[in-house]
Amino acid sequence: MAAARAVVVLVGLAEAQDGLGSYLERRGYDVRIAGEVWEADTILSAERADVAVVDLETGDGAGLDLLRRRAGESGALFIAVGAPGNLLDRILALELGAADAVARPIDRRELAARVGGLVARGRHHQPELLVLETSTVDLRAAIVMHRTGEEDMLSAGQVALLRLFTANPHVVLSRDDIIAAAPAETSEAFDRSIDSRIVRLRRKLGTESIVTVRGAGYRFDPP
């Protein structure tokens, strides 16, 4: 059975209405948006949330108050978002039990990486990130994030190939091994199609880490 999607609650963030929520959803998270802290209390009480991202720049200090009441208890791990020049608020948030703190402006990719790290910590497993020469792959979200800032989506077959290689680093896998463990997405799963799939995958990732072993198959050598 597939693992349950992680729930991320965005609390009081104007950025949530400006694409941040949909950005996190594209990475495989179930996102809940709470415009006010009282809405966050309702969400956090009603369902199991993994991470809550809280705006500290509420004029009434409601973000810090939420941390006082809920951070450290069994439940969501908190990321506090503060003003760029207000280090003291972020330190206070950490002292109140926030697991992480960031300053504005929010970089979506950085925040997504921090969310992924906390989800992994809370669920006691490693994040499914693969760092290559010029890109980082989020296997769970099936996204390739290039150093240039561009992103590409991976097909289900490409994710299956990468999972097979990462589970067997430095091991030569024959074409039969690959066909058995990561079948093609079409009926054309004959021997030579594996070569084409590997070429396309290398090109999309911008990597030379998947090495051709002449006459034997392919080997993944993590960079």
Show the helix and strand layout.
Elements: E1 7-11, H1 20-26, E2 30-34, H2 37-46, E3 51-55, H3 62-70, E4 77-82, H4 87-95, E5 100-103, H5 108-123, E6 129-131, E7 135-138, E8 143-146, E9 151-153, H6 156-167, E10 172-173, H7 175-181, H8 191-205, E11 210-213, E12 217-220
Parallel strand pairs: 1-2, 1-3, 3-4, 4-5
Antiparallel strand pairs: 6-7, 7-8, 8-9, 10-12, 11-12
Summarize the structure.
This protein is of the alpha/beta class and 223 residues long. The protein has helices spanning 20-26, 37-46, 62-70, 87-95, 108-123, 156-167, 175-181, 191-205; strands at residues 7-11, 30-34, 51-55, 77-82, 100-103, 129-131, 135-138, 143-146, 151-153, 172-173, 210-213, 217-220. Strands 2-1-3-4-5 form a 5-stranded parallel sheet, with helices on both faces.
Structure overview:
By secondary structure, the protein is α/β, with parallel strands linked by helices. The protein has 2 domains: 7-127, Response regulator (Rossmann fold, 3-Layer(aba) Sandwich); 130-220, Orthogonal Bundle (Arc Repressor Mutant, subunit A). The protein has 8 helices and 12 strands. The protein has helices at 20-26, 37-46, 62-70, 87-95, 108-123, 156-167, 175-181, 191-205, and strands at 7-11, 30-34, 51-55, 77-82, 100-103, 129-131, 135-138, 143-146, 151-153, 172-173, 210-213, 217-220. The strands form 3 sheets. A 5-stranded parallel beta sheet has the order 2-1-3-4-5, sandwiched between helices. Strands 6-7-8-9 form a 4-stranded antiparallel beta sheet, with no helix packed on it. A 3-stranded antiparallel beta sheet has the order 10-12-11. Strand 3 (51-55), helix 3 (62-70) and strand 4 form a beta-alpha-beta unit. It starts with 6 loop residues before the first strand and ends with a strand. Residues 187-191 have low confidence and may be disordered.
